[in-house]
Amino acid sequence: AKSSGRDGFKIYDQTRPEKSVNKLTLLEEMRTGIENGEFFLEYQPQYNLVSGRIVGAEALVRWQHPVLGRLMPGEFIALAEESGLIVPLGRWVLHEACRQNRQWQDDGLTPITMGVNVSVRQFRDSGLISDVTAALKDTGLEAGYLELEVTESLLIQNADQAVRLMDDFRRIGLKLAIDDFGTGYSSLAALKSFPLTRLKIDRSFIRDLDFDESDRSIARAIISLGRELGLNVVAEGVESAKQQAFLASCRCETVQGFHFGRPMNATRFGKLLAMTLTP
Ligand code: C2E
Ligand code: CA
Ligand code: CA
Ligand code: CA
């Protein structure tokens, strides 16, 4: 979504004509939409490249708006951040993602890690740790099956607080991923300072792998750096067999992208997971 003037807020989506709605109206609708259960999650599978099994999911939020239809995060997350509504929304996302992951385990499916995106505002809000512990306690999910995805800019902007918070999260057993790795200005500093468990290579380095020699070098270097540091590495945005083959040749452990599966609803994901046999 992009801003258009003082209170106009442009909603843009390829599947329907461009609409302009009032920003304050959308905000108010977001507030009630959270209470009315208009938000839902889709799950994108993450695969181990060697075994071919699903090892994780990333939870991605969508908004089923009563008039505008389905809205994607790009159309409302910035507004949620700006207004602070990301705090109650993020709390709901955490709870729902944990509940669903626990449900799949109760259904007898292979346990997987659930990645949840955390934004700067949630991170600054001192309630994040209690939201996380409440979500785990209420749903009965073990901490080791929850992974928080944070960006390097978030970490660097709030460095002192972030180190403390991340240490607390690691102490309770959570996984911590650095998202969109390589796009910020302090990627290497972040690796050094924070107790991360996973590194997600940004899609922009994967997109042009087939023809961009420097992107190939960068991807290869990030994968071996991750390995040296004992971090799991995920390549995001893998869209072709050719990209997959290259990543396999670099011994990249985990992959995520349209080539393997698009974000999908919980029912479809559960069926897909059921086809992944227990090792
Ligand atoms: P992200 O965390 O980098 O999430 C990955 C995005 O890339 C998702 O878009 C996903 O659908 C898309 N994607 C996955 N594989 C491919 C591929 O092979 N090709 C291409 N072109 N795209 C791919 P989505 O769902 O629109 O989410 C966009 C962003 O919105 C996310 O980027 C994340 O930053 C944010 N977001 C999503 N859900 C949440 C949430 O619950 N809380 C917060 N704070 N942010 C969220
Ligand atoms: Ca993410
Ligand atoms: Ca990402
Ligand atoms: Ca490039």
From TrEMBL:
Domain (EAL) spans 23-277
Please, which domain of life does this record's source organism belong to? Answer: Bacteria
Put simply, this protein is called: PAS domain S-box-containing protein/diguanylate cyclase (GGDEF)-like protein
Entire protein: which part is shown? 489 to 767 of 779
